[in-house]
Amino acid sequence: MSLSSAIGAISTFNECVTFWQWARSAISSLHSQWSGSQEQELQGRVLQLESGLQVLRDTLPAMHDLINKAEWRSHDDAVAKLLPSLKDAVFDAEDLIDEFRWYEKKVQAEGNASQSPFIDFFDTVIQGSFNKLSVVQSRLNHLSVQLEKMELRGVAQRFDTLVRPETTSLLIETKIFGRDKELKQVLEFLNVPINLKRKRATSSVNASTSTSASNHVNSESGPPVLVIGGIGGVGKTTLAQLICSHQPVRSHFKKIIWICASDDFDVKRLTKKVIQSCTGKEAKTDNLDSLQHALSNHVSNKRLLIVLDDVWDDALKENGQCWKRFCAPFRSVQEGSAMLVTTRCSNVSEGVRTMEPVILEGLQDTIFWNFFKSCAFGSEGSNNDPELECIGRSILPKLKGSPLAAKTLGCILSMDLQASHWNFILESELWELKQKETDILPALRLSYMYLPYYLKRCFAFCAVYPKDYKFQKEHLAELWAVEGFVEPESGVPIQSIGCQYFEELVARSFFQKVSGGYVIHDLLHDMAQKVSEHDCFILRNKSDFDKVPPNVRHLLIHPVGDIDHSNLLSLCKYKKLRTLLCDEVFNEKKNPIMGSWCTELLHMRVMSCLYTKKLPDNIGNWKHLRYLQISGPFSLKIPSTFCWLYNLQILYARESKLQILARDFGKLIGLQKFETQKLTLNSENQLGPGIRLLKNLKFRGALEIANVGILSNHHAAEAELKNMIYLEELKLNIQNREVVEVLQPPISLKSLFLQNYGGSSLPSWFQPQNLPSLESLQIESCGGPESMSLNEIPAFLSLVDMTIKW
Q: What's the pTM value of the predicted model, to 2 decimals?
């Protein structure tokens, strides 16, 4: 069938409410091209496609939940094997749904009078049968059935005892390295005589700590709470066990109660455990009131040390009432009692502590080296193989002072005392090494496991950045939003929700605030790379190209070695790529690479490319693209196909000068934020739609609007330049006074250039109170104004540069 003779009929379509109504109307309007049975068949296929996509949309939430449950059972080899396939199938489904959103936006942008939407839809979807839908749905169904056979549907989202065994107060380690300072801090808090070197502490120390402790003990609030915090594997539990085994502590308190809280902070369960610890007998009743009264009686007027080991943020549920309910029976304890809480969650620390917490960092270098030697060689002795010791010292920095990391690597190294084995460990990434469930990365993975699913996706994405990368909250929130990781909330900007996500991860200690931004602890970064090993990858050298996962979704090119043209071209085989962050400089010889990417990598959502001098003509192929960052002090003419990026939300070209045809710019209906050094809107055909779009943007930078009398004052008014609070520079090359009058700039404007203005007087908004930040003023070739009152210019108090020509 030929469409060319029937295209004119499309212009007669009435505006349809939905994309699918539009598609059915398109087929009906071209009914002369088909027989009745052919038209009926096409309508049936459209209906089937619409129904199938809705089923797929309805399926996705259940699939996300299944991924979450599978991650809780990822220590099971069979589940771990299926998990990457399940994630990959879900990502494929998301891409498929997203592709249809592009068609919907194309109809919205092009309008019913356009031929383009139907041609694309007809050729790609209907004529091409578009069997991807059934393939994706079938794969999801198959994987779901496989996981159901493993009884995954009803799995409890709690830590398996295999990966998080219950702790006790008994000290497991035969020797403790370091921690004298922290031990002293805790003993001072407990008001216990400090005798670390078997010498009686001075009275001044005892006096100060006694006063400090007594200030926090009263019958209304219960015993004071000291938190021992730090990331997994840093030694929090070991320090708590050391305290409990310390003889002066045991003598000081009537009883020490140790409770392993772990990830299920159930008040009734924990109260029963405390009663059993006090009495040696299991509580029979399930009535919480009876349990709490019984516990209150058992602890009344006794000086107790209560240790809650491994508390997670579910202790703060119900707006903190859960924690208060648990603590209520302890109000009857004797003055001098105390509570220790160990946690890796900083929000737990803030929610339960009554004084400054003790935060454990990695062990100091000398102490850590001695501990590492004892793990790797079986002793601290210095008579070990000098070559191995040299390699060991090179391995040490990647462990960041973590005792559990030292144990993990020490165990792996001790299995083979050959230099070749030790060098292999040195050259390997920690996350690539196979580890037991009690080793460092599985221990850190518990922090990840306990995250809500929406935060898991956000944090795992961070593995695409190198270690020590300084994250900016707003920037990362933008990327999470465009990647589809942020769940919309009615009336709240989606990037604001992304910032909330970031703060939640900060509260859970996944990010650490440093000067200039936030960083992820190296060991947590290793853990992030482990949980996202099939999805994220960093390319540094040529050899890394052989290690890229086949279904990689997010890729960073961060060269420290030689990466050539052929290497970059080889990325075209990773068809499912969504994110490409390039630190590589693209010179003119490498321009064809980006063109090849636009042909082959058709699921791209985020593209960040440094020093690009040219955008390829086929950039319109990136139907999924939402975020584009280009940089370099160049003048870029945007190709006409750029207007096909209907999903584009954020465009950064901070150092570039862009020339955009306004008729194309107006089709970017998804664009929300746009920063450039200078934007020129030309007057070819339709300036109105382009300038009208400006009012919906967080446009930052310089804007130039030029026309030859085409722009109407109605369209100019729709731009609402006055509300563009981020606009810093404005150049108006417009003759019509009425148009210029309605293009009043915002009060934040710093630079104004008025050219070829034909009005008899300057616009009414040219007043100091309307432009209080104006620093630079240039008026050129403005023959219209009969007079200018230069006496008023000094009233522009910020003005430092003024030029008047012709």
A: 0.82
